[in-house]
Amino acid sequence: MAAASPPPSPPAAKRPKMSSSSDPEADAEPTSPSAAGDDPGQPRRPRYKRRKVAILLGYCGAGYQGMQKNPGARTIEGDLEEALYQAGAVPEADRAAPRRYDWARAARTDKGVSAAAQVVSGRFYVDPPGFIDRLNAQLAPQIRAYGYVRVTNSFSAKKFCDRRRYLYLLPVFALDPSAHPDREAVMASMGSGSELTKCLECSERGRKVPGVMGREGKLPSPGENGADVAMDGTVDSHDESGSIGAAKCDPTITDGGKTNSHGELGLSSNEKLDLPVSGDGTEAGNAELGSNDVDDVVPSGSSDGDASIGNEVNKLEAAATEDKVQGMDFEMSNGEEKPPTKSAFSYTEKVKEKFNRILKYYVGTHNFHNFTTRTKAEDPAAKRFIISFAADRVVSLDGIDFVRCEVLGQSFMLHQIRKMIGLAVAVMRNCAPESIYDVSFRKDVNLNVPTAPEVGLYLDECMFTSYNKKWKDSHEAVSMEPYCEEAEEFKVKYIFPHIAAMEHKEGAVALWLHSLNHRNYPDFCYMETAGAEAKVGADVESSAAGAEAKIGAEVENIEEVQIPSNNEVQIPSDNVSE
């Protein structure tokens, strides 16, 4: 009887099918449109591939702790990553893991700093068409994506960006030495003939003043305490749609007091006079705030008596104006606020020339260790190259004139631009000498430099000149040129009103100006201290040299000992040595 044949062995397990894509996550991604449908009757959906793209966007930094993602803080990058996932551009496996899709940013803005043209890059699912619309639907209104550009696989928004342009909108009054003085300066000016006035407005904003305003920190929002308090000319707060009073924003560019498109000079009625300009670039019209040292113009045919009467009248008017400013009450009897009086100071050609001269100290390659934090002078990263730095135009936003400070450089460190603006303002306000720039870039000198408020700073453009030139034949240029109109609309709707509103309601720059004094920044006197030490050293050296010369002269003047002719010297017996 034949033996029974053994049962057939089970078939060997099939090897798992290898992905044909260079990106295995693209084939196995359940959230992206896939060809594997659960229902055989359903038509096969198209399979999309990841694309390396550069996304161009803008954002208003209000309410965010900067661009870079930071655990526990609300950041632009955190919201953008989540929006990319919700829009289907990032798979579930890569959620909250930006390194897995080659995430990179062109610039890392600080807390509260805005950007009109930021660029980020990565590998995303951008198909089907309508990716930007899907992304914007997941973003807050103050973050807008303009478009995207296909780039090479090796592209990195951080590494390939060779220039970055920032703008800082600085209120014109910040350059006026008599505007918003600190308490020490007010006390020191008493009895000098050009007294400074106490800034009551900033006293209200900075701390609670009992019996004056009854509030602390900042102005109340409309509708607070049952009263609708509003300041004339302020920018409205955020509405439900996210717009910030765009109708009141007037980003009209003026030129140092020339007529703008609305036919206004940007000056108050008493500023329209052709006032003489003092040596430091400030107009002599500041005499209305308490300075009585302005030369009075007397007609050639008038007598001495008429001139004397004119002087007395001018002094009385100046005194009345000073009393009015010092006794100004910013709250009317019915609870409404009075708008602050406008200074006679303006951005004249003389002020512009001085400010631009100061800003040019930053141009070139320097060691900026004094203009950042956490970077030592010996660190090679402290060396940065500034291509240009100028402030040639004035923009008017909601009744406030701002100087448009434009800086172009390869890259910037933490707080670098704000510190450069801070020291320049301190020099313009005579808080620090202009000669401080002779030592501010030295490795062996450490200075405490003031940091200007972040609200006026925004990233205006990121440039990829070398990349665009190299790949111009095969790839579209990474540029903001196709989206210039959208970027301008975004600035007018969100960035500009935010800057004006912060100055109107909280006095961001005005309060900061009160801190520019020698008590907070003793290094403002560095040149005087260093000069005194050098003088003391020189005096010590000269006195020592003088003493040596005197001793030498006395030695030379000692009479020579007369030796007898027989060469015998009589020596006392008690002085003889053994």
TrEMBL record:
Task: Cite the entry's keywords alphabetically.
Answer: Isomerase, mRNA processing, Nucleus, tRNA processing
The signal peptide, as residue positions, is: none
Biased composition (Polar residues) is annotated at 257-270
Q: Catalytic site residues?
A: D110 (nucleophile)
| Chain intervals for the UniProt region annotation (Disordered) | 1-48, 210-310
The reply to whether Isomerase figures as a keyword in the UniProt entry is yes
Question: What residues bind substrate, as annotated?
Answer: Y166
Would you name any one GO CC term? Answer: nucleus
Q: Where is the composition biased (Low complexity)?
A: 297-308
The Pseudouridine synthase I TruA alpha/beta domain covers: 359-464
Q: Where is the composition biased (Pro residues)?
A: 1-13
Annotated GO MF terms: pseudouridine synthase activity; RNA binding
Cellular location(s): Nucleus
Query: Reaction(s) catalyzed by this protein?
Result: a uridine in tRNA = a pseudouridine in tRNA; a uridine in mRNA = a pseudouridine in mRNA
Mention one GO biological process in which this protein takes part, according to its record.
mRNA processing
Family membership: Belongs to the tRNA pseudouridine synthase TruA family.
| Protein name from the UniProt record | tRNA pseudouridine synthase A, mitochondrial
Q: Taxonomic classification, please?
A: Eukaryota, Viridiplantae, Streptophyta, Embryophyta, Tracheophyta
